[in-house]
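cron nightly-structures :: item 1 of 1
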Amino acid sequence: MSIQPIKDGIRSHVRIDFYGNVHKRLRGTDADKRYATEVEVLKVLEQRGCPYVPKVIEEHPEENYFVSTNCGMPAPHIPKERADQLFAALERDYGVRHLDAEPRNITYSDKLARFCIIDFELAEILPFPTPSEDASQPAANI
């Protein structure tokens, strides 16, 4: 199986396999805690129906390693203001606060035809938001 390296930093090693799945191995300071946080957050977001984040396919906690679906390519030219809107929508609609809310954690998925959010090793799960009574329409596809 061919693996394409994407990122090889002090905090993680990320590769894309032949099928397009993302292989992420966390390392460095608190790798086990960051691994547990990311996997838990991704599972909560899947349960809450968030369509624009990776989905966990495999878990290997003893190795701080997991495999997830792919959310597209980096979006290096996204303005900070636009990225901030995406992170705010994630918190408002799905109850997850991304604690590294930077444009580098935004991708664009041709398959979904939208921006997506990645890298949840630093994130906080909040209570699931309940729709307000005056919200007559679902959140816009940001």
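cron nightly-structures :: done
The longest strand covers residues 3-8.
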